[in-house]
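Most newcomers find our protein records easier to grasp once they have seen one. To make this concrete, we reproduce a full record directly below:

…
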Amino acid sequence: MLKAFLYSSLCLGLLAVCARTSQASIFGLDPDGGGNGFLSVDQLDWTPDSALSLDGLTAIRAWAATAGTVQLPFTTYTHGKLGAANLNNTNQLPGGVGEITFVAGITENVTAAIPTGGGGVIATFGLLPGPVNFFEIWQGAADSNQLAGTGYNNGTLIMSGFATAFQGVANYAENSVVSALDQHNANDYPALQTLEGNGSTTIVGSIAFVDTNYFAGITPGQTISFFSTNQKNPFDAADPSARFTLAPGGAPPVLEGAGLAPAASLGPVNGDINSVFPDVQYQTDAASTFNPTFFVPEPVSVMVWGGLFIAGIVSCARRRHTVVS
């Protein structure tokens, strides 16, 4: 019964991702904020990159071992670079205008998990209101480094906000096939393998700040389907990042995930629930759209969501790691 539910959830999640552009608004984007006019676009399409769930594997393992009696929170961080600004699936973005990047972090829990054998698992996830909850879009020099995980939150902050809900069902499914984690160009992590898998997540957020030098037709409080993404392993279209940004406000990225010794984070096989290792890293392929609706929290939620910016500034205290030399 649980397995049938999870497979149904995966289908619903994929349908939600496919349907995400149906209510997208056309908005204006000035890629360098230089006052040379706004491009009319309806989607920000980010290049493939990385996401890391700190203690995500620990939370999946706890749910599976207790049939959901124990539900542990965990935090997921991601970043990316704008690859295209689309209007009707056609890129409008010119060259030579620096780059636009994003960083984001959310708090999640596991809502269902069932082992599939060989260390694999099918799992679904829910969004929790803190303590980590932020997204930021930045514009600056073309200096982001995918492998290092740096250069995603410098320059000028042009938009920020927080997540309010998952649209559809956030999910991830692994099989028992083990392969090299990094299959994009040269293998930069020969000591790391991964269980193969894929999933999808659509995070709906609320805009708190927007720089009108860069965006037109977008208002604080407006809804953004910020992180409509497919996750997968292994990495075949991006290099696994060694660092992630754990807090908003230009915080320096921190060595985590693939950037640490395997015994400190991912283990020798990324995603193996039969291991004792806490974290799991994914390749992501994300896109953002803006909707004409506005986020209105329920009365009991106003103080919770309103405090997310304060709480999100302080990254959760976490164990120290041994850094790869």
